[in-house]
Amino acid sequence: MSTFYGPDFQALQSSDPQIAEVLLKELDRQRMNLQLIASENFTSPAVLATLGSTLSNKYAEGYPGKRYYGGCEEVDVAEEIGIARAKELFGAEHANLQPHSGASANVAIYQAFTKPGDTVLAMSLAEGGHLTHGSKVNFSGKWFNVVSYGVRKDNERIDYDELEALAHQHKPKMICSGATAYPSLIDFKRIRQICDAVGAIMWVDAAHFIGLVAGKAIESPVPYADAVSFTTHKVLRGPRGGMILSKAEHAAAIDKAVFPGMQGGPIMSAVAGKAVALKECATSEYQDYAKKVIENCKELAASLENEGMRAVSGGTETHLALIDIRSTGVTGKEGDERCSQSGITLNKNAIPFDPEKPSITSGIRVGTAAVTTAGMGRAEMKEIASLIARAIRDGADREKAAKIMQDVHSLTAQFPVYPR
Ligand SMILES: *Cc1c(COP(=O)(O)O)cnc(C)c1O
What is the pLDDT averaged over residues 215-243? Predict the structure, then answer.
């Protein structure tokens, strides 16, 4: 067997110094700034090696053993291992590793279970849902009749009574649960009961929290749902991509919807990278990691409350927290910009019933998946909360922002990612 042909950075530097410089600067940015975007993480060197491999060259339309191209014997092994690992890790009856992204996986879900014009019930975007859950600028909102449910005013958690009433009123083909900016756990059992009562497909978009499920830190939607779609690059810490788990009875519909329904050839380097990540997720180290991500997020939300800001729904049960920063007199947009000036990367986010426009917002969203991978713990979460508070208050002042950035860099220097 030949030796591995791995990523050759020197070759890139000599052939394309401009792009080589982007790669170097991006690595520095990831190492030095505080990475608090709830949907990001630092994938492992093993996953990066797989992504940068010659598997990228291979066309493999179809599924293992049933391809439309020759020469798939090696990539078949990778995909079969990945499928077996996914089924084992999540206790799922079927797994499809080919969706290029979370949004692509969702296109396949709609295609497997609905026809254009059908009614789908999903969480409102303003209250945490995703673009693919019925936004008017997305295919889901253009091609489907999407009815939205939201959260309760008093506790900012999903209004299950409203969800149930809407399900009986509109008789949706499919009910979607899962969101991009929802810090609480979801009652999958209740949603299953509602789906059964109205004969709807139960689809869970677990993009954000599936890593916590993989690490056995929160309850799994897999036993309840007809299908679970997700991204592999958020808390799960794998390569950029998507995946779908389903009951065996939906296996053929899901596979057909992914290929040939909406994609051509799978990205086999990413499929193999998903297999590598799934093996990592099955370890006790990863389970410890998933628990720490939640502990850290609880600490971060509580510490931000100590700084005078309000955690939506009173805190968090997951890897992300939504923080209402109106008490500071700064909007979400301005807060995001001030943090960015100070070396803190997070995003502005609407809070439930936000009085501001979606482009301004009253809140920020923070997540602890990446900083926990870097090795940070509760003491560092307290420090991060104080850095965020300083940035939001003083980050408009260039000198003060520069001082905060110095403090950010001395914190991240103690927790190096991708050490040299
Ligand atoms: C991130 C996310 C997606 C989309 O994933 P992409 O890989 O960016 O396409 C879909 N649904 C939810 C709930 C998400 O959080």
Answer: 98
89 CA to centre of ligand 1 in angstroms: 21
Angle at the Cα of 235 from the Cα atoms of 229 and 237, rounded to 5 degrees: 95
Residue 419's pLDDT band (boundaries 50, 70, 90)?
Answer: confident
Residue 246 half-sphere exposure toward CB, CA atoms < 13 A: 26
What's the total number of domains in the chain? Answer: 2
In short, whether 213's Cβ falls inside 6 Å of ligand 1 is no
The last residue of a domain, from among 281, 304, 327: 281
Active site residue 8: no
pTM of the shown model: 0.97
Cβ pair 273, 45 in contact under 8 A: no
What is the rounded CA–CA span in Å between residue 132 and residue 178? 11
What whole-number distance in Å separates Cα of residue 154 and Cα of residue 411? Answer: 37
Same domain, yes or no, for 182 and 276?
Answer: yes
**Residue 159: CATH number of its domain:** 3.40.640.10
Dihedral, CA of residue 49, residue 50, residue 56 and residue 60, to nearest 10: 170
d(CA 238, CA 76): 19
Let me know whether 301 and 274 are in one domain.
no
- For ligand 1, is residue 208 a contact (CB within 6 Å)? yes
Cα 38 to Cα 107: distance, rounded to the nearest angstrom: 23
Q: Are residues 260 and 327 both part of a single domain? A: no
If you measure from the C-alpha of residue 210 to the centroid of ligand 1, how many angstroms do you get, rounded to a whole number?
A: 12
DSSP 133: G
Q: Among residues of the chain, what percentage have pLDDT more than 90?
A: 96
If one counts every other C-beta atom within 10 angstroms of the C-beta of residue 197, the result is: 11
Same domain, 93 and 201: yes
234 is catalytic: yes
H or E stretch at 34: strand 34-35
Distance, CA of 406 to CA of 403 (rounded, Å): 5
Parent domain of 400: 287-412
Indicate whether 309 belongs to any domain. Answer: yes
Residue 70, amino acid: G
Q: Which residues lie below 8 Å from residue 20, measured CB to CB, with a gap of 6+?
A: 9, 12, 13
61 included as an active-site residue: yes
**With DSSP H G I counted as helix, E B as strand and the rest as coil, what are the percentages for the chain, rounded to 5?**
50, 15, 40
pLDDT in tens, 348-361: 999 999 999 999 99
Average pLDDT (243-263) is: 98
